[in-house]
Amino acid sequence: MNSLTNSSTKIEKSDTPEAETSSSASHDAPNGNERDEKVTLDGASIALPSHVAGSGTLDRLVENARDYAKASTAENTNKAYAADWKHFARWCRLKGTDPLPPSPEMIGLYLTDLAAPTGPSPALSVSTIDRRLSGLAWNYAQRGFPLDRKDRHIATVLAGIKRKHARPPVQKEAILPEDILAMVATLGFDLRGLRDRAILLLGYAGGLRRSEIVSLDHGKDVTPDSGGWVEILEDGAVLTLNAKTGWREVEIGRGSTDQTCPVHALERWLHFAKIDFGPVFVGTSRDGKKALETRLNDKHVARLIKRTVLDAGIRSELPEKERLALFSGHSLRAGLASSAEVDERYVQKQLGHASAEMTRRYQRRRDRFRVNLTKAAGL
């Protein structure tokens, strides 16, 4: 193996997982008049009935119940919902009102301000506005205030926003076979290069979400933050994932050559990083000679894709900013869906989609007229 070296790029500056922050966080610096909404929610959403006296056993059950409640939604979803509430609470303060109890009239005005801002903030997309409303509904429910999304002050405003501003979703570019090969060719053979090669090839062949990649463990039920585990067999690897649609298995067969085989890349990373339990994908020391214990953040996958896309010269005819905007973690899933020449149902199973229609959204190149209903109808 080549001597272990370390290189830095302008996109990936460190392997140390960093805390995620929302874009609105910089505008919400705490002051003496503000409450910590997260602390309030965590402390009050799950509690004993008022007429029941606490005890050591009951208090421990309350803490466990809070942990389960927190685990009911994905970590990234929790962060997004927390950011949604923080943004709405700040908006209410600026308008001289309070976010509690819920006011359908004020929420309708809030949605209007998101779609057609009166200030310098840019207008949000319809999908983001819809997500913000879902975040508010979830936060209100946790605080014991049901939000009626069908109230006319909310429903009619949202319907009007969708009718006036809705656009087809902007899809990320698919990473095609020749692209992924060019991307992994830019990586070195130090520990970091071995790890990143395994991430790209495994994510591509498995059609994995970036959160699914970094949540893998080497061994079942090893860590509390595990999202699944990997088992390496003679003919390939089996990933057992706790995904959005529940537990599912993803089979990744061995490739035609060691250079392009995701299972071989994973084996090399695990061997040289000396990982036999715990998180599969972890950070490395600054000198690139040692694997650390800390699990990678899923943002690492997004940065890795963008960096290797640039280094491989993919879509080099475009300016760098546009090239970076074209690709994301979803590009790996779209690449598998667009490139695998197999029956659609196998792709659907690999991606973990509940419907074939969702799978087709990921297929950037497919024969749309393979089934010609016009001719089938006799025309």
Explain what this protein looks like in three dimensions:
By secondary structure, the protein is α+β, with helices and mostly antiparallel strands. 46% of the residues lie in helices and 8% in strands. It contains 16 helices and 6 strands. The strands form 2 sheets. It has a 4-stranded mixed sheet with strand order 1-2-3-4. Strands 5-6 form a two-stranded antiparallel ribbon. α3 (75-94) packs across α5 (126-142), α7 (177-185) crosses α11 and α8 packs across α13. The chain is globular and about 65 Å long. Mean pLDDT is 82; it is low at 1-14 and 16-40.
Strand order of the largest sheet: 1-2-3-4
Tell me the overall shape. globular
Our Rg estimate from Cα atoms comes to: 24 Å
Secondary structure class reads: alpha+beta
Note the gap between the termini.
64 Å
How much is the average pLDDT? 82
Major β-sheet annotation: 4 strands, mixed
Low confidence ranges: 1-14, 16-40
Helix share of residues? 40-55%
Beta fraction: 5-15%
Question: How many individual β-strands?
Answer: 6
Q: Strand-and-helix sequence, N→C?
A: HHHHHHHHHEEEEHEEHHHHHH
Discrete helix count: 16
